Amino acid sequence: MKFPSIGEIATTSVVSIDIDRTIAEAMKMMFNNEHRNLIVRDGNNFRILRVGDILNIKIQNIDLQKSLRELDLAVVQTAHKDKNILQIVDYLNCEIEYICVVNDDGSFYGLVAHADIASSIDPDTLMDNFCLQDFLKLSRRAKWVNKNTKTMDLLQEMIKNDFESVIVIENFKPIGIFTTKDVVRVMKHNEDLELNIGSYMSSPVDTISKDCSMKDALEFLKLKRYKRVVVVDEDGKMSGIITQKELISLSYSRWAMLIKEHHEELSQLNASLLYKNKKYEVMASTDALTGLYNRHKFSELYNSSYLTMEQRGNVMSLMILDIDYFKKINDTFGHGIGDGVLIQISHALLKNLRNIDIICRWGGEEFVVLLPAVDLNQATFLAEKLRESIEIFEIDMVGRVTASFGVTQVNRGDALEAVVERADKALYEAKASGRNCVRANF
């Protein structure tokens, strides 16, 4: 297997414009070619005119006869055409999805998009048993809206939060998608932005099951030439979105495992790969929103902690906590504020736990904490302290919230699933008792 240079995968027939040309000329070029982005040549630098820039121009009523130089256009990263593809994976961290490929003299050679990198990944190197439902815990929250949302309101939110796509749902099932490509179409035809997004969404939506593997998802992206995968559960309801960038990043960690088989080709990259491996290990073990451990990493840590408990003859306990009425917070204030609540609660929990305690975002508004060397009575006491600290904690924009707790002790021979099930039953009792309380289950 040979890792290609970026010159080998670059697109060399690229539409571009000089920075001293007018905004009107650039927009005409974008609309005629139906491009979502346009490369702007600025001497030895390359900039990019994006759909978001065009929307801002329209909203701010900027004179279209002004030159592109008067706009604050983002700079696109550049890389020499002979660079190995492994050397540019870090560029995926940039919000711009393109890399300008240059010749020895710095002149423009071509363009590499995330889609080109994804297409160069050999699916056989990926983990077939790595399911999307596990990877969804690493993915950032996607934007979902109702079909009755006004188009202008949605466009403004897309600009503000840098959304490249929005899923339109009905009864939690995806019925349409609105991407930057649709934005170009709406603006090109000067559509009425006061109409609902249901008038302009692309429908139907191609989806993939959350039980599919990473390999399936990547092959789906290559076949469809999409920039994202819309993931649904067994009932066809939204589970989340995984972007090209996220799939490539995780695939990269798999690539790194092949180093030993390709010593001669990769010897000069070893130092940088060691650094990158650590970074992607962290990414694969933590929840993207809160920074806490994810389920996969928590399972590993439970197993090692259990062995330590047996070797030392110690005890160990586990608690589950769930933020009360979290759906109401999302419905009242929006998912962005809801995310902020989860982050602030995470910080509050970390502040009140010991360094040896292991905390994980279990999913949604649920958190699981493993308490080494703590028996059930001590765990119940600690859960009560955490409950009180959350109850008096002032959350930005929302005020005060409460949480319910379920606590259990780890028994000899307990697998994680059995412990979680007992704690979950105790949590159910806490909720049935009126919430904002602690219940224990032996």
Helix/strand-derived class?
Answer: alpha/beta
Assembly form of the protein: single chain
Radius of gyration (Å): 25 Å
Spatial strand arrangement across the major sheet: 15-16-14-19-20
The main sheet comes to: 5 strands, mixed
Q: Level of helix content?
A: 40-55%
Q: Write down the CATH topology of the largest domain.
A: Alpha-Beta Plaits
Task: State the end-to-end CA separation.
Answer: 54 Å
Under the CATH scheme, which class of the largest domain? Alpha Beta
- What are the segments in which pLDDT stays under 50 over at least 5 consecutive residues? 125-129, 137-141
Total strand segments: 20
- Can you count the helices? 16
Can you tell me the overall shape?
Answer: elongated
Strand content: 15-25%
Architecture overview:
By secondary structure, this protein is α/β, with parallel strands linked by helices. It has 4 domains: 6-120, CBS-domain; 124-246, Roll (CBS-domain), CATH 3.10.580; 251-282, no CATH class; 295-441, 2-Layer Sandwich (Alpha-Beta Plaits), CATH 3.30.70. It contains 16 helices and 20 strands. The strands form 6 sheets. It has a 5-stranded mixed β-sheet. A 4-stranded mixed β-sheet has the order 1-2-3-4. Strands 5-6-7 form a 3-stranded mixed β-sheet. Helix 4 packs parallel to helix 9, helix 9 packs across helix 11 (270-285) and helix 14 packs across helix 15 (376-391). The protein is elongated, with a radius of gyration of 25 Å. 33% of the residues are buried.
